[in-house]
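Subgroup meeting minutes
Present: P.N., E.W., G.H.
Scribe: E.W.

1. P.N. recapped why we're keeping a running log of single-chain structure predictions: easier to compare across weeks, and new members can see raw inputs and outputs side by side.
2. G.H. added today's entry (115 aa).
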Amino acid sequence: MILYRPVGTKELELIRESGYRKFPPRLPDQPIFYPVLWEEYAREIAGRWNVKYNEDHRGYVTRFEVDDEYFEKFEVHQVGKSYHEELWVPAGELEEFNRHILGKIQVTEKFNCMV
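Output recorded in log:
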């Protein structure tokens, strides 16, 4: 299953340090890791939320694949429009989730604040 994850610069740097193989652990106040199913939704988050709220006003869309059998273990949550679909992966399961990533995490798009 192809998934997307909107990230900021700090998270992207940690992904880069892993050789583009895994997502970093969640912060204590982040109990859920939520990749999204649709690139359009990831673009919205990266281009609107990340650009607005990150210190450097940048956002990135990452694309990656998780094996289908492992993907099936998670429930898909629709949180808005029909394409606002997310997986809710408990933070404690992120290490296992990372082991099921096939290939490398790719950066597909970059957003900057145009001031």
